[in-house]
Design goal:
about 575 residues, mainly alpha
């Protein structure tokens, strides 16, 4: 937004516009640079503190109540910057901040006025002391601002005493303040932790438990030497009959304070988080962030254990509930991804087997694994079982499926390798002659899988050679009529795919659409203010995408579907 100078605006005009409410319109238009004494921002503060106008009265003006969007945000920023420098009574300031916060709603901008109020209290500690005194006497308005007054005073002893002396909102405010006040040393921090820990216990109200857990984590992060003693105790109390709100705070605490969690505490929290309601989207987002943070660390196997448990059949969870974790697993360390896919494919759990296929990319982005099953503890029957499951669930992800079979060939005995080699030929190479064959052709001499891979490729070449009819029989060639039907079918299919893609696009409704009937260039005329319209030319270029259809999908689609179903349904012997 463009700002303009207020140098030509007199003090009388600013005062008049403030009294009429018109000054609210100026906030977004005029310069509010804090470093410029002549800016609207500084002149308003000066006139307010001199008693010439009441800047806080603008917050209660009907014009401000009608603001929304960027206009409200501009005002919110203006007042949040101004509040710490304004002279006003405690009552006036609390009421103004309350209006700003309520109008901000759930937006992050709602937090700005509270921070400004804390800074206002810190600028004159007598203000904070007065609010604490009113809150102690039971004043409802002061009680809602007690946290910020205590934080401004930086008095841990006072916050602890209020937490112990009261059982209402004042206790909650004091508990929160204990996490926001910086302890000067470990002894003060430990005194705060000793105050907080009993309130995390299951005997307390849910809100009290949540308000005690969060500051406990905050204090432990600032004093790691204390976390080894107090964090396990806090976690043990928190996971005893936890509510969904408490689980929310546990999940958020895990990803935001991960470095203070030892393996045992992580495991306890993740076990408790298995109890979350899968319909609560915000809670799932926090768990997702926690899982991703754990997956990136040295205890990443705990995140995989969690997913393996909650994604099992009948739990109500989907892999897409954990989008950040899914992205990290799918695009991160390839060896980790390989181990996860193998674990889920050999689990003999249909839900996890399906999730393994969802985790892998398909098409041009699919990257075959270059590894071995060595170290995974798989027996010969396990490798055959894995190969059949890989072909069943990843059949259309041909190169990745082939790489899983090759990984088994590199670690199994010869009898098992012979069985897996047969699976390479039928059904894989029997159906695919593109990416799967290209990948297998990269296996070099000296690789333990080489002999069986070459045998499968030779079998596939022989099979294709036997399909060649010499001489060609015209009776077996499709007629022009049949070819036209197939072309029309393909055209209708691709048109439907395009329409569906347009419906799902978040950008399609934001752009202008033009249909070019002919030519290879489009011209758009750009109209600029005060200038002649100028043409903008865009040359069109081609792009292409291809995918390979399994041969048997055309020759015997029912038989192929039954074969894939049989592979997926394989049971351990």
């Amino acid at each position: 937004m463009e700002n303009h100078s207020t140098a030509s605006t007199s003090d009388e005009e600013i005062i008049a516009r403030c009294n009429s409410g018109a000054l609210l319109d100026d906030i977004g238009r005029f310069d509010i640079d804090e470093s410029d004494p002549s800016s609207l921002f500084n002149r308003c503060i000066y006139l307010h503190n001199a008693g010439n106008l009441d800047l806080l009265a603008l917050i209660g003006h009907p014009k401000f109540a009608a603001f929304s969007g960027s206009a409200f945000f501009d005002c919110q920023i203006f007042f949040s910057k101004a509040i710490p420098r304004l002279r006003a009574s405690e009552r006036e300031m609390m009421r103004a901040v309350e209006i700003l916060v309520k109008k901000g709603g759930v937006d992050l901008a709602a937090n700005f006025p509270y921070e400004a109020f804390r800074n206002w209290c810190a600028a004159g500690l007598s203000r904070a002391e007065q609010i604490v005194a009113w809150a102690r006497s039971g004043d409802a308005e002061a009680m809602s601002f007690l946290t910020f007054a205590l934080t401004a005073l930086q008095d841990l002893s006072l916050a602890r005493s209020i937490a112990l002396d009261y059982i209402d909102e004042r206790r909650l405010s004091a508990l929160i303040a204990l996490g926001r006040i910086q302890a000067p040393d470990a002894s003060e921090a430990e005194a705060s932790l000793k105050t907080l820990l009993p309130f995390v216990a299951a005997s307390n109200d849910e809100t009290v438990r949540c308000n005690a857990l969060v500051p406990t984590l905050q204090v432990c992060e600032l004093f790691p030497s204390l976390s080894s003693v107090y964090l396990p105790a806090a976690i043990e109390s928190a996971i005893e009959t936890p509510s969904q709100d408490l689980l929310f705070n546990l999940a958020r605490g895990l990803w935001s304070h991960l470095k203070i969690f030892d393996r045992g505490s992580m495991e306890q929290v993740l076990t408790a988080l298995q109890l979350i309601d899968p319909t609560l989207e915000r809670l799932l987002q926090e768990v997702d962030m926690a899982l991703r943070a754990v997956a990136l660390g040295s205890n990443g196997d705990l995140a995989i254990d969690y997913l393996s448990e909650v994604l099992s059949f009948g739990t109500g969870f989907q892999l897409n509930n954990f989008k950040s974790t899914k992205h990290e697993l799918a695009t991160g360390n390839q060896e980790r991804l390989f181990r996860v896919v193998v674990r889920w494919l050999v689990s003999d759990n249909a839900a996890l087997e399906r999730v393994a296929s969802e985790l892998l990319r398909t098409g041009d982005d699919a990257q075959p694994f270059d590894t071995s099953t060595a170290g995974l503890g798989l027996t010969g029957p396990d490798c055959i079982f894995l190969s059949r499951k890989a072909l069943g669930w990843l059949f259309f992800n041909q190169s990745v499926a082939a790489s899983l079979l090759v990984a088994c060939l590199r670690d199994c005995d010869q009898a098992t390798a012979a069985e897996i080699g047969k699976l390479l030929f039928d059904p894989l190479l029997l159906n695919y002659g593109g990416k799967a064959r290209d990948y297998l052709a990269t296996i070099k001499r000296g690789d333990r899988a080489y002999r069986h891979v070459r045998k499968a490729i030779a079998s596939a070449d022989s099979y294709l050679a036997d399909l060649e009819l010499k001489p060609q029989l015209k009776e077996f060639r499709p007629s022009d009529y049949q070819r036209n039907i197939e072309r029309q079918h393909t055209h209708d299919f691709m048109r439907d795919v395009q329409k569906q893609a347009e419906k799902q696009s978040i950008l399609f409704n934001l752009v202008h659409r033009s249909v070019l009937l002919y030519g290879r260039r489009s011209i758009t005329y750009l109209h600029e203010h005060g200038k002649k319209a100028r043409p903008v030319r865009m040359d069109l270029h081609s792009f292409s995408h291809s995918y390979e259809i399994p041969r048997l999908q055309i020759i015997d689609p029912v038989g192929l579907s039954l074969r894939i179903f049989a592979l997926r349904s394989t049971k351990r012997k």
